Amino acid sequence: MLLDPENTLFVRGATPVLLLADAPVHDALPLLPASDAAVPLCEGWSIVPRLTLCVVDGPGDHGLVVPALAAPVVGGAVVLSLDHLPETLDWSALLSSGTARGGFMLAVA
After folding, report:
1. What are the pLDDT tens digits along the chain (109 aa)?
2. Neighbouring residues of 10: CB distance < 8 A, sequence distance ≥ 6
3. 0.85 exceeded by the pTM?
4. Which of 16, 23, 51, 96 is the most exposed place for a label (fewest CB within 10 A)?
């Protein structure tokens, strides 16, 4: 499934973050714990960055393609699925919203 690029945002950093809005895989991703704990590993999920796209691959038929120019993912990324993309990045609010889903996904070469 191709996700509209307007519903995605890559945030560069030591650990890159891919924010997804209105993603068809939202309910298949694990619910993030609403605490100060570390972002958990997304078991059974992986991220495959390529030059012009990025694939988020999950168990079974779950997965999506994100159009991206040079996705900033090397060893892995935190993938967060939200209802909508935030206007400002408030990480503590995003991670403790109780509705965000996802976690850390290992990159597949």
Report:
1. 899 989 999 888 888 999 999 999 999 999 887 666 778 899 999 999 888 889 999 999 999 999 887 777 779 999 999 999 999 999 888 888 888 999 999 998 7
2. 16, 17, 18, 19, 68, 71, 72
3. yes
4. 51
Phi, psi angles (nearest 5°) of residue 107 = -80, 140
For the residues of 44-95, what is the DSSP string, one character each? EEEEEE-SSEEEEE-STT-EEEEE-SS---SSEEEEEEESS--SS--HHHHH
Q: Which residue in 35, 21, 19, 6 sits closest to 77, CA to CA?
A: 19
Question: How many whole angstroms separate alpha carbon 100 and alpha carbon 94?
Answer: 7
* Biggest distance spanned by C-alpha atoms of the chain: 35
Neighbours of 61 (CB within 10 A): 8
Tokens representing 98? 């109780």
